[in-house]
Description:
Order of helices and strands: EEEEHEHEHEHHHHHHEHEHHE
CATH topology: Rossmann fold
Low-confidence stretches: 2-16, 161-170, 319-334
Domain AB hydrolase-1: 56-300
Strand order of the largest sheet: 1-2-3-5-4-6-7-8-9-10
Distance between the termini: 44 Å
Mean pLDDT: 85
Number of helices: 12
Keywords: Hydrolase
Number of strands: 10
Strand content: 15-25%
Number of domains: 1
InterPro entries: AB_hydrolase_1, AB_hydrolase_fold, AB_hydrolase_sf
CATH class: Alpha Beta
Radius of gyration: 18 Å
Shape: globular
Protein name: Hydrolase
Helix content: 25-40%
CATH superfamily: Alpha/Beta hydrolase fold, catalytic domain
Largest sheet: 10 strands, mixed
Amino acid sequence: MSSTELPSVPAANVLPKVAAVRVAEGERLRSVGLPGVTLTVRSRPPAREGLPPAFYVHGLGGSSQNWSALMEQLEGDVDGEAVDLPGFGDSPPPDDGDYSLTAHARAVIRCLDASGRGPVHLFGNSLGGAVSTRVAAVRPDLVRTLTLVSPALPEIRVQRSAVPTGLLAVPGVTALFTRLTRQWTAEQRVRGVLQLCYGDPARVSPEGFGDAVQEMERRLQLPYFWDAMTRSARGLVNAYTLGGQHALWRQAERVLAPTFLVYGGRDQLVGHRMSERAVRAFRDSRLLSLPEAGHVAMMEYPDVVARAVRAFLAEAGDGRGDGGADALPAGSGS
């Protein structure tokens, strides 16, 4: 493994003529070279030495930036790092073009193994929640606790609002969508994403909206942007069809780590009703239900989620915060 600090502008031979990835104050990026894949890892210096390690995995179409707000909230509790999955954020595509769920999980495992930071407090949102579930099931030695925000686990009755995202997995649909939306501005695309992912898009500040537009403009210049989206969506759908020991719900049942589940009442991509099944599947679980939140509660309500995580970590015996009342027993809501 090789690890290097990233300059403010990506190397010319990686992302030519594409703007630099945004790095918030106090954050830093580094590039980690692993067999078959190069990953960008975002981190914040911990508030003090000796804090337990945490690792954050984003969802489909997202990046490590999705965790910036929560990472800042928890910098006094954990030593956090967030990864850009292959083909997302500032990570280039994998050498073999494999965007399956197993491949994403393998990239996370390789990164954790190479860093020597495990076991970690593992966080996952959406696609990253499914990836993290698989990691926790197959490599329990790497995970001390598992926190899942709207994890993309299989649903029999998919919400109608989630269908367009799933259709990305259908051959030809992405090319058609690209042609139909060719004239859409980055601002229009961001507004659509916020409408889909937030319970209340008005919670996004003008500055945050501007940053999102700039990031969308950057991503649309990447030649592999739609390929990474399409193949990752297809990989997730394919994972839903697997049976036996590879079935995601079966793997959820195998997770040994204490698990904290966060679901939004206004989530248009993962049905809130799935929280009940998740509580039953994960053997040692707690539930935080946020009625007003959408699909990315850690972005929409980072302070609430952070307080709940502190309480969860304290209960799990690895907390460094002052606790709180937001981490609820399995089957409860707020």
